[in-house]
Amino acid sequence: MARRNSRGTNEGTVYYCEANGYWMAQLTLAYDPLTGKRKRLSRYANTRREALEKLNELREKYACNIHYDAGKITVKQWLDKWKETYKAPKLRENTLASYERVLNICTDAIGYMKLEKVQPSDLQNIIYSNIGTDKYRTCQYFRTVIKQAFARAVKERLIIESPADDLELPEKPPKKPFIKPTIDTWQTLLDANVGFYGWSIAILTVLVTGVRRSELLALTWDSFNIKKDKNGNIVSGTVTIDKAMGIGKVDPVTQHLHIYVGRTKSVSAIRTLPLPISYIKELMAYKKKQNILRMASKNWEHPEMVFTTNDGRYYNPDVFSSLYSRICKELGIKTTFHQLRHDMATSMKASHQFDFKDIQNQLGHSNIQITLDTYTHMEEKDIEKVGEWMDNRFEKIVNSGK
Fold first, then answer.
1. Domain boundary among 11, 28, 63
2. Phi and psi dihedrals of 171, rounded to 5?
3. b/e map of 258-267 (b: 16 or more CB within 10 Å)?
4. What is the pTM of this model?
5. Domain limits at 137?
6. Secondary structure of the chain: what % helix, strand, coil (to 5)?
7. Are residues 58 and 86 part of one domain?
8. For the segment 94-126, what is each residue's pLDDT rounded down to a tens digit?
9. What is the total count of domains within the chain?
10. Which class for 193: exposed (0-12), middle (13-18), buried (19 or more C-beta within 10 A)?
11. What is the C-alpha to C-alpha distance for residues 286 and 304, in angstroms, rounded to an integer?
12. Cα–Cα distance between 243 and 215 in angstroms, integer?
């Protein structure tokens, strides 16, 4: 028969089980919402002193109102629940797919562990060993996502503190040099012999807008607002960027990637941009060309899209990137597609007609720091100008003291 040594209310109990020959530390928590019965946590010990120590550990832990069922939840169970509850309803499909890739890295490594047992070293080891120090961007994304997931676990009182708060990243690699596209670069790209019928107008669109790849391929004909005078001459025009093309999961039936048009990267990415009249004329000529192809096609799936495959389907963004890379390799062009976008910011800055807020709006950045950090590069003439100014400043100060 067990002899119980009752403790005060909410302090738990320590007693000896004579039949089994061990001491028991037991703490009573809340009611189980499923059964209506009180939930008790028990720990076994060889001595009364050891049992009291374990009871104190339980008190310290559950004094923070930790959920009584917290000790049963694994890392995988929590990450799955967090994703479906907090992320799936609001993330774009391609962003959710990126989250899932990161979460899979974590669950493959420690998904079996109890959530409360995870230590910072377990997560740090995933960054340095499972991902690898040569994949800085993946490590950075992993830290961002996992930190969110464990912070929510703290809020829901599944753990006392987050093991993801102070994760370290590998050394950041040097930024790739910006290779500014020259006028010849743009012209070579425009003149390239490409199988994609929309190639030239796509490059022209990036030239006059600086849109992202996903925004470019998501343009629909109603994105454009073109104004004409009473004689039918084009007098002005704008394009509204409010959509983005994404790549989702593989369709289980067709085994094809799900290509879709959704919302832009952020609310601040929605913007209306002015267009040159000469560009609009090129766009209208292109539309006639597309209509000819569409009329000759048996099934043109997306007549609303500005850019499609040669048979009217959505144009896979990854396929477009591969096409661009192949063309650049063949033509000896070192400027990446994203650096074409950089060029819009750099050229606006070099004109001395626009401030950083203008550039931020043109490119659709969520905050101006992105514009400052990433998309403005000093050209050689600017560097030379600073050098000359510095020489003069140095001479003035040094010589004034002689």
1. 63
2. -60, 135
3. ebebbebbee
4. 0.67
5. 75-155
6. 50, 15, 35
7. no
8. 888 889 999 999 999 999 999 989 999 999 999
9. 3
10. exposed
11. 14
12. 6
